[in-house]
Amino acid sequence: MGYGMRATGASMSGRRLDGSVGGRGRVHRPALRRGRTCRRSGPISLGALVADEVDGIGVARLRDAALEAATLGSEVVGDAIDKPVEVETKMNATDLVTKTDKNTEDAILKYLRREFPDHMILGEEGGYVGNPDSDFLWCIDPLDGTTNFAHSFPSFATSVGLLYKGQVVAGSVVEFTGGPKCWGMRTYAAGRGLGATCNGDAIHVSDRSTVQESLLVTGFGYDHGEAWAMNMEFFKHFTDVSRGVRRLGSAAVDLCQVALGITESYHEFYLKPWDVCAGVLMVEESGGKVTTLQGDDYTVFSKSMIASNGKVHGEMLHHMKPKVETLSVASELRDLWFVPDGYEVCL
């Protein structure tokens, strides 16, 4: 693996993610110790993407399936907007989950398991389900931005992305916009090599070329450790040297807005595969660039990310990369996480 990346299975707290999850049929949650890794030569030279197909399945079909799955999920979310919300907590008091998260994931799972019974699926709420030996892995975030949803704050989305050997090949995000009395949606879709769209129209990243003229976005996770504190310093720095820094609370939305050309860059530590799988493809297929904050090749199993229009990428990294390397967790940040045991990730 380039840059000394290692595949590991521990979360930030060191909590193992083994075990099964009840209530959703047969769920397979494998030990997340070490996936297999390989180097790829070129954008997606995986030996299976030929004539717009991945392992015999058309990329357009996979994109359309992701779009259908995200749309079905968004219908569940839409039906629950501005209604009383049943809120529970997960790892801490600010990490929320609602009945809508679970119902939305169930709707998406039902569709994907019917259409692709041999694929593996990773859902934020339910863990792994399906064929653990498959090279295809669907990553579902049924409601990215749950806290925003619970408060009717318009920055949340349904996200469905598909990996083949660790590389994103298709995805869709349905973003909820507006707010009470004026809700709307932006529906994004992308297939590897097919470009990205919003509401059916082709999209492209912005052409702004300096941080000084850019609007930036970041996020802060639930682990308030050393990396979190450094990102606070980044927030202060870039507020001074750019047109502003926003924190909206939904990685899927943040990535899609870079792809749409609304913002120029988005960065964050410790994102999960379901947070970013579809959004990363939107950025890349709209002409943008994605790496880790240490400048390494990015995979959805990486522990840091910067996504940009490509033109400001180097300037952003010039400030952040040397500082990230001073963290005591700098080496650990190059470890991969949430990789299913035995799953091949091609970098």
Automatic annotation (TrEMBL):
Cofactor requirement: Mg(2+)
Sequence segments annotated as region (Disordered): 1-36
GO MF annotation list: inositol monophosphate 1-phosphatase activity; metal ion binding
Comp. bias intervals (Basic residues): 25-36
Gene3D superfamilies from the UniProt entry: 3.40.190.80, Fructose-1,6-Bisphosphatase, subunit A, domain 1
Enzyme class: hydrolase
Keywords carried by this UniProt record: Hydrolase, Magnesium, Metal-binding
Record carries keyword Iron: no
CDD domains: IMPase
Catalytic activity: a myo-inositol phosphate + H2O = myo-inositol + phosphate
Matches recorded under SUPFAM superfamilies: Carbohydrate phosphatase
The keyword Hydrolase belongs to this UniProt entry's keyword annotation: yes
Binding residue positions for Mg(2+): E124, D141, L143, D144, D275
EC number: 3.1.3.25
Gene Ontology terms: biological process: inositol metabolic process; phosphatidylinositol phosphate biosynthetic process; signal transduction
Name the UniProt record assigns to this protein: Inositol-1-monophosphatase
Protein's organism: Chloropicon roscoffensis
